[in-house]
Amino acid sequence: MANQEHVDLLKQGIAEWNLWRDEHPKIRPDLRSAKLNGSDLTNADLTSTDFSFATLSRVKLIHANLSFATFSFAILNEADLSTATLIHTDLSGDILNKVILNEAKLTGAILKGANLSTATLIHTDFNGADLSGVILNEADLTNTDLSGANLNNTTFDGAILTSANLSGADLTNADLTRANLWDTVFANNDLSTTKGLAEVYHKGPSHIELHSVKLPQDGSALHFLRGVGIPDEWIDFYHASMMHPIHYYSCFISYASDNEDIAKRLHADLQASGVRCWFAPHDLKPGDFFREEIDKAIHLQDKLLLIFSEQSVASKWVRYEVNRALDREVNQERMILFPIRLDDAVLHTKGDWAHSLRSSRHIGNFTRWQEHQGYQEAFTQLLQHLKDETT
Q: Span 202-207, mean pLDDT?
């Protein structure tokens, strides 16, 4: 329950409240479960205040300082927080239907699972905010700063953006993985660095101004366009006229048979991203001689993607493939071997070839490949390093 002294002091007026805050800067006001519906708290210094489970419907918090405050499971229906400062504020689980946050600053705020349906969020700063699982149905996010914001969720569906207006929103490095779209508006957006476009859930068609939206130069753009309902002939035109495909080095995938699951996954994802790969289960034909075809494939591909693991360190076939790649490096005087690791075996092995690679090469870290987020982060970095900058 709320500290009654704090409630009474707030009701005396904002001037008296702010004066008390200046005199007692280390006190964290306790307004838990307080009933403040319709209160005018404009310009109030509410830094670090605990509003958990409070009812704040129609409250005016215009230009209030709410940094580091906690609003967990509070009710802010139709509250007006225009130009308020909510840096690192916790709004997780809140109900904020029809809330107004125009030009508010929510850098690093936590809104996990909050309900912001029909909220007005024009020019609001959500830079780096945690919006995982947030409900933004019919929210107006025009010109909102969502750069670096997390609209993803690793345990359940991401943010719900049904009928949300994202016109002019800054989505630089925002994560839309598993976000739910339907009737969502995209216009004047740069989505070239937005994460998770290929993993968005399209519950129905959305609206996109193709001439004003910048998309990535890879397969995720085409996947996204199909998801929002763009006709195939328009997608073909966009692909031909607007996209300049990124060129990647081709790869031979070297792995131990015990690691076939991750090898198959990498093969599928690399191919989908435009990286040509030679992968034995797909490319060996019945009757092929293993060593002859492997030698030929290693010679033809730009890189040998080596999947390091406890099993591959002990594999004679992997050792053979690595040695063939190292021979090419000597003969062609360029880097061929491209190692990644699934565990720490290569960091501790005393085997000659693996020990030599460990001490002389950077090895990509895929030790979290069984976690969705860990795999996506490692794969994105791998894809970046496989770009052929010479084309």
A: 94
More confident residue, 191 or 301: 191
Q: What is the pLDDT of residues 134-144, one digit of tens each?
A: 889 999 999 99
Per the structure, the complete domain to which residue 355 belongs is given by: 251-385
Q: Does 141 reside within a domain?
A: no
Give the closest residue to 248 by CA, choosing from 265, 230, 270, 229: 270
Does pTM top 0.90 for this prediction? no
- Angle, alpha carbons 222-227-229 (nearest 5°): 100
Q: Are 44 and 86 in contact (CB under 8 A)?
A: no
CB-neighbour burial class of residue 140 (10 A; exposed 0-12, middle 13-18, buried 19+): buried
Q: Is residue 46 part of a domain?
A: no
Secondary structure (3-state) at 272: helix
- 200 part of a folded domain: no
Quote the DSSP letter at residue 41: -
Q: Which is nearest to 388 in space by CA: 225, 275, 234, 229? A: 275
CATH of the domain at 301: 3.40.50.10140
What are the residues facing 109 on neighbouring strands?
Answer: none
| Any domain includes 170 | no
pLDDT of residue 281: 59
